[in-house]
Every structure is written in C-alpha cells, then in structure tokens.
Amino acid sequence: MQYASILKMLGLITGVLAIFLLIPTVYAFVLGTSDFNGFLYSFIIAAVTGALLAMIPKSKHSLKYRDSYALVSFGWLSAGLFGCLPYFISNAIPSFTDAYFESISGFTTTGASIVSNIEGLHPATLLWRSLTQWLGGMGIIVFALAIIPYLNIGGMGIFQAEVPGPTAEKLTPRIQDTAKVLWMVYLIFTIALILLLWAGGMTFFDAVCHSFTTMSTGGFSTKNNSVAGFNSPYIEWVLVIFMVIAGINFALHYRFLFKGLKFKTYTQDSELGFYFLIIIFCVVSVSTTIFIQQGGDFFKTIRDVCFTVASILTTTGFGTADYELWPIYGQFILMFIMLMGGCAGSTAGGIKSVRLMLVLKYMYTEILKLLHPNLIRTVKMRHAVVDRYVLANILGFIFIYTGVMAVSILLVSFEVKDMVTAIGSVIASLSNIGPGFGTVGPTENYAHLGNFTKWILSLDMVMGRLEILTILILFLPGTWRK
Amino acid sequence: MKILIAGAGEVGFHLIEKLCKDDHEIFVVDTQRDVLDKLKEDYDIQIDHGSIIDSKFLHMSYLKEIDLFMAITNSDETNMIACKTASEAGAKKTICRIRQINLNSEKKQFSLKSLGIDWVINPVSLVADELFKLVLTPNIVDSHEFAAGEVSMTAYRITSYAKILNCSIGQLEEEQFNGRFQIGIIQRKDLSIIPGKAEMIRQDDIVYFFYRPRDYQLLRKILGYDHLQSKSRQIFINGGGHMGLRVALRLEKANQNVKVIEKDLARSYHISEKLQKALVLNFDGTDLKQLIAEGIETADYFISVTDNEQVNLTACLIAHQQGVEHTVCLVKQPELIQIIDQNTPISLGVSPRMLTARHLVRFIQDSGTFNYFTLLNSHIEILETRVTETTACLGQPLCVMDLPENVRIAIIVREGRFLIPDGEAELLPNDIILMILHRLDRQKAMGVFKQPASEEAIS
C-alpha cells in the first residue's frame, strides 16, 4: 500500500470538494441565512485539510490496483465526512450519525433522508444536498480525474473502480479525456433539464436542485412531498423522460451527441433494448393490476405508474404516488426492479440491466447445452463475445450482492422492528434508491431508525455505489500486507 | 487477347486448358520449373520461370502489352502486389485471387482500384455463393447478365410445381409470356437443344430464360416458386473452416436453421464467436451416433465442406443413408465432380478450383467485341455483339442472312428496348444482339457480323 500517494490524492479530491463547498457558502452569504457560518467553517476545514495532504511529496511509484481501490473507497468515505460538516456545524442536523447518513446518502445518489421537514431547511443547505448528489452521480473521482492531470497515473484502475458496470469503457485513448467527455455530456443534459423545468413553472432554484438530483438519479427534493408537491403533469413527464435518460449508459449519449446525432447509436444497443423492455413490461403489468384490483382515473394512474417505475428502476427515488397502497404484485415488481437498476455506465445504481441480461443469456446457453451435449456457444453482446472471465465475474457479483444484502438485513434486524422495513431499507440503500418499504416507504423517512442501523445503511450505500468489490477489497487482509 | 497467368496451380491448369482452345496468346509465370515444363509439353504457350513479384518481371517487355493479368498464386499478398506492379507496368486489366483477406466487407476500407486490382475473385465466396443459391433457390442452375445488365439469363431445372410443365413453347409464348420471356435453350439429360415452337417442356429439363431483370418476380411466379420463399430449412454443415463459416453466416442471415459441425475445439469456439443463431457442435462429422443424436434425419440439406475430401464423401454418404434428401460434397479435384454426380447417391459435388476457373474464363469472354458465354457441360454458347454502321448484314431480314443452320438470334436490345425477333426483323446500327449457337459455328457466325473495316486492319 502506498499510503503517501493515496493521502496526497485524497488531499486533492478534498480540495475539489472544498471548491464545490464554496458555492453554497456564497449562496448563503448572499441570502444572509444562518447556515452561512456552517458552510464557511466546513469550507475552511476542507480546504486546509486538502492543502495539507496535497503537500505530501510526490511518490515515484505508480498506483497498483489495490491502491486505486483503496483510494476510491477512502475518497468516498471522506467525501461523506466533509460533506456532512455543513449540516452538523450549522445545526441543521444536530446528530453526527444523521448528518453523515444524509451526506453519504447524497453522494451515493441514494436519496434516503432523515430530515422530516425538508421545506424548513435553508436554501443553501438544500442546494448543497442536491449538489452532493450531482457530484456523486457521475463520480467525484471521475470529476477529479477530469480536472487534475496528476491523478491520471493509475491506468484504468481508479476509473474502473468508480464507474458502474461489468467493464468500464474508455471513450477516448486517454482516461482524462474520457472523464471530461462524460462530465460534458452530464452537464449538457443537466442544463437542458434546468431549462425545461424552469419553463414548466418551477422556480429557478427548484429547477436547478431537481435537475441535479434527476440527472444523478439521486432523488433529493426541495419539497416535503417530493415531486408530488409541484402537482404538475408537465414536470412529472419531463422528469420521467430525464430519469430514463439518466439510467442509460452515458457512453451511448456521448456517441449520439458527439458522433453525428444518429439514432442508430441507441437502437442498436442490446442492453438498452432490454432496459426499455423491462420498463414497458413493468408499466403495462403494474397499471393493469391496479385497474383490475383498485380502479381509478386512467390518466392519473398511468402517469403515476410511469413515474414510479422510472423513478425506482433508475434508482432515483422521487415520489408522486404512495406505492405501498398498490396491489402486492405491483410492490413486488418494484422490489425486483430496485435490485435490477439501470444500465451500466449510467448514474443509476443496482445490479445493472446488462448483468441481468448476460446472466439470462448465459442460462439459456446452459439449457441449450443440455439439448445438444456437444454444443459450443459463446455469450455475445453487441455482436462481440463476452469473455468467460467476465461472465464468472458477473455471477460472482450477483452472489456477493445478495450476500451483502443478507448480512446487512441480519445486522439491521438488531434494531428494526419489522421484516418489511428491514428488507426494504437494506435494498433501498444498497441499490441507491432512497424510499424503501415498510416504515421507510415513499411517504416516510429514515429518521426513526437506530444509530447502528444508520451506519450499516450508510456503508451499504457506499458499497452499492462502488459496486461492492471496491469496498470489500479493504476487508481483505492481503490488501494491507506489505 | 494477350493474357498473363501468374501461378500455374490447379486453377491455372484448368484455365490454360480452356483458354488454349480459343485464339489467345498466353504467358505463364510460376516458381516451379517442373510444372512449367509439363505445361510447355502440352500447350502452345510462353512460359517464364520465377516469382511474379521479382523485380525482373517488372522490366519484362511484354508486360505493357498484356490485356489481362491474372494473379492466381497461392498467396494473397503476392497476388495483390503482383496486380499493383502489373497495372503500373501497363497491363490493361487485372484479376486478383484472394482467399483469406476479406475485401468484401460492407465498408470498403480502401478502393481496389488504388491497389491496381480490377476484379477480385475469391474461391471461398464463390463456393459460399454457390451453396447459398443451392439452398435458397434450389432449382436455379446458372445465371448471367448480358448487354450491360439489360438482359438477364437464368437457367431453371423444371420441377413438378412449375406452371409451364408439359406446355409447348409456341403455346407459352402466346398465352403466358407476352413477349417478356424467351426460352433460348433446353438441356435434357446430356442433350442441349435450341428449341423450336413445338418443343414441349418436361420435368427435370433445364430451361434457359432470357428476360429483362425487372420481370424476375413474374418469372418466379410462372415457375411456381412463391410457396418456397418463406420456408425455413434445416441445414447441417460439416466443417467449420473458411467455407463452412462463410456459408453458415449467409444462411443464418437468411433465417435458415443452421447447425455447424466442427471437430476441432478451438476452431469451434472461434466460429461460435462469429455466428449469432447457428448452433456450433463439436464432434466428428462422420460420427453416426452423434449425427443421429442431433437429428440428422430431419435435415433438408447436408453440406460437407471440410478440408479433407475423403471425410466429405464419407459424411455425405452417411447423411444420405440416414435419409437426407440433398447432400453436397466439397471436393478439391474437379475430375471427382462427375464421378460424384453420376456414380454416387450424393446430390452434388462442388469444387472451388472448378468454380474459380469457370469464373475466370467468363471474365475473359466478357472483354472483347464479341462476348461469349459457355454453358455448363455443353457445347452451346451464347454470343453477344454490337451491330455497327459498317456491319455487313445491315438492313437484311434475319431469314435471308447467311448464318449457319443452328444459329438463333434470340434477343435484340435496341435503345434499351428488349425485342424477341422473328424472321422478318432487320438489324439497325447500335443494336446489341444475343445469338445462341454451337461452339463449332462460332467462327462462322462471327464472320457474318465482323466489320469489313476491322477485317482489313487485321489482315
């Protein structure tokens, strides 16, 4: 382990965070609200820590894989720490556990909140909540890679550790350019969404906050009732579209936007086809069961189902309808798509549709082999062969994912009273959704849970965002050996 | 015509044999002296020993007079370089044989012209084309285009569901053809007939239709092909080499059920990566038990294209014994084809060398004032020529022209129109005519149409 290099880079990342802390600090100063001090102190602490760590002399050695994983893991944990300072110092969230939970829920784009009266928070604090999600969506490390050339020494290591999906895709020969390009695409969509929401009757402040949390599939809102608080079909449909966009691989968006605006880019992608198939299936089957079992207004129901399915599948977690009142079938569908999540390379969480699709293809191949004992067949995606090593990796990932889920449910159940809540809160945290089931459903929040549970869920969120293995490596003794 | 053939392998031999019967000056270059010596004994040609890409050939005085340069050595790279140097040295047209390098991809990475190549001939894709046509259009025996694409010729084997079965040609012309189709030749068993109006069409005849390309669908209808179109067939391909893979890829794209049998495990993995839907099975294609386990009896076609012709023969015989109706066997030696077709129950033998040689001959036939086209296994030829203002027989009705008895003028293309002439028709300048004739009559027929001016020039 190369502690010096890792600490130096952590310092650089913290410095980046400090720059972002400056935004709400200035905003609070302009508005003259009481959380200004909190932001100012947080900024100073982050800036000083960052500067001190960054002064550690350059190491001659480049980062090994394990160093990259450690760097990314610690980067995220420390981001949570510095991100929670404003809440804690300004007394907006008095308990440190709660503040850390809120901060990490932001960075991991989970959107689970312990704040009961969101509208009671100061605007600058609300902005910071949304900003943490926006940063976490495309990735703090990827952002740092884009702007700090010095970080660009670890090869694919750091990039691979943070970008979700079975294989990280380089869009340009140099990682730094890839990181820039990804953030550029992210920025373009965010600005487009801000304009659309602003045009739809939101205040500019709300439009910015919601765009940040939509494109990152985070799900923090500035309203107590989430998006339902705006009561506007236009806003809901715009959000549905942009949530679905955010759940798509950003490499595709990049090719579409920068390589000639050809829709073929999208229509030829098999993962995207699978993703849309799931969306259509969920919307049709859930709304049909609602009509059969509960009835109700046609357009309102369709809109609510579309919104909820998009919100849950992309792991955003905005709410317009209380899905806990839906038929059990609908709730189960939602639970399944919570686990599935969006596409690889998107800002969404979960297992990712590409993994599910490849596992299904692999299973089909295995069944076919029973029919034809001598069959030789490879699993393919986008007309290219999927390496058997990658398939094994995916199967392992799904196993570990469920394993971590099971262990977390066990740990959480020390404090949580009912089964639904225990399972619901863990899935919602691990898949970075936000609202779960039981007492952490779409109309409730996480405030009433015990401190131990909150720490476990915080860890789950980071694991979910970094796809588990990055964090799990830290628990291996071999990582720490010389 | 002056033709240089680089590479005197099997294809080269076959080609030389065919070309020597016509009036060509042939130069052959090869690296093997014994092969050249044998050639010199048998044929009246000029030979040179050495590698075609050796610098001494670049300075060869005759290179700039060559009308057609054929690079058909065993090495793709040699052929490509040879074409490049030959075209720079002044050869008028070049043909390059390429087996491994894929030049026919959808996006052309580079233009062949820049490599000095006019035509590419690829034995693998020729065989793949042949097998593909065999499965998808099972009764098309041959096809060609004449008069720069104005006239198509297609040869069909007449089946029991053809609507023209047991009709006489005169009757058909009156009732069904409306001047759109002309039946030029009928092949019945080993006999080739230039049919009169009274000739009846019988089952298993091979009938040569001449028509405009846009009437193709109508022709299919008349032949009763419609019901064949949507059917998906069960095809077994034994051998996953270049040929097997190419055929499998094309058939798979045409929604046929393809199973590829390949003995080698590593190769099996390789082809399974290229194929999307087709099943790749890893066992020996002559293993009866495995074939039965995979349902060989349900197969419509069994195509054996391994590198080893003994294996192909055995596999096809096994498949035939298991009740597969159509079995196709790939052989290297062209001589084996006749044996397979006539003395074994295997439906068809295919030889890449034979196909290559046949196609190369057609390139030569296409490039003069008189283009002629030889039918398969027959002495009948189709001769195409353009009438000019100096042609001797201008303005005479066809029936008084001094043509040999069995020569028929089948089609006249006049200003893009397609005419089926009768005895009263007269020729005008710029007409393109297609004649059907016996190859022995060719010189005589050419004499009738030869232009007086050019005749003088030659003498």
Widest sheet, order of strands of chain B? 3-2-1-4-5-6
- What is the string of SSEs of chain A from the N terminus onward? HHHHHHHHHHHHHHHHEEEHHHHH
Beta-strand percentage of chain A?
under 5%
Number of helices of chain B: 15
Largest sheet of chain B: 6 strands, parallel
How big is the Rg of chain B? 24 Å
Residue share in helix of chain B: 25-40%
Q: What is the count of β-strands of chain A?
A: 3
Give the averaged pLDDT of chain B, no decimals: 80
Low-confidence stretches of chain B: 453-459
Kindly estimate the percentage of residues of chain B that lie in beta strands according to DSSP. 15-25%
Q: Helix amount of chain A, in percent? A: 55-70%
Please give the most extensive interface between any two protein chains, plus how many residues each contributes. Answer: A-B, 11 and 15 residues
CATH class of the largest domain in chain B: Alpha Beta
Could you list some keywords that capture this structure?
heterodimer, A: mainly alpha, two-stranded antiparallel sheet, globular, B: 459 residues, alpha/beta, Rossmann fold, Alpha-Beta Plaits, 3 domains, six-stranded parallel β-sheet, 15 helices, 22 strands, 32% helix, disordered C terminus
